[in-house]
Amino acid sequence: MDAGGGVGVHYDPRMNELLVDRRDDGVVLLTLNRPDRRNSMTDGMTEQWRRAVGDLKRDGDVRCVVVTGAGSVFCSGGDLSWLADRGAEDVPALRDRMLGFYRTWLSIAELEVPTIAAINGAAVGAGLCFALACDLVYAAEDAKLLVPFTSLGLHPGMAATYLLPRAAGVGVAREMLLTGRTVLGAEAAATGLVTRAFPRESILAEVLGIASATAANAPVATRLTKVALAGGGHADLDAALRWESLAQPVTMATGDLLEGLAAQRERRAPRFGNS
User: Fold this and answer.
1) Which of 27, 141, 157, 173 has its CA 20 to 30 A from that of 267?
2) Which InterPro entries does UniProt cross-reference here (predicted)?
3) pTM of the shown model
């Protein structure tokens, strides 16, 4: 079972290991597309992910991004087959390799629009960690979530020691990281590790509905709200008030405010633009 780590498997550049579906409502669906390898993070998928996220950063029409896995697995983590040759690299080279791998996948956190993970099946090691880097995380009720790094002789990676405690608290993070215990999606929702859990057969439809509703909100207000909540929110009440006393007037100066008020007055859905 993969747990996260570097990549080194040769891939066919013609293979589409990441599907990108741009929907009419401003939602972009990213699907990890190596079900034959349990959607592990191969060289090819990692490179395609890097390019796709870079494109999304420059796309002003994107309102929300959803990531899921093809088949019955979300992501089994990094492809560890390259570790058989680990003796060929020293620690500094491995460090640079791993840091680049981590930053590529965690770049989803750098998007200014809301990001949502739809964990449709097993999410293992680095696969679970990059999902936790999204703003919202939904899981199938029976999805298996685990971070078995130490059982493979590895220290946790992909910011596991930051993302798990941030999501569910230090106690849950300690148990999962030190014992390798598998948590099902329903329990993960109860502990706060994921936002909510849905039946496996309906999770993608549920998440796309949430994404569509999120994408329909005012884009400037949504992006500023995401900034306000980054890293778990403001350090204290005064910091929140100082930010909000600036950010709220910024949104007051947009056409979206007038549209939102008009829609409320006319009892219709608002039609927000990009400013």
Assistant:
1) 27
2) ClpP/crotonase-like_dom_sf, Enoyl-CoA_hyd/isom_CS, Enoyl-CoA_hydra/iso, Enoyl-CoA_hydra_C
3) 0.91
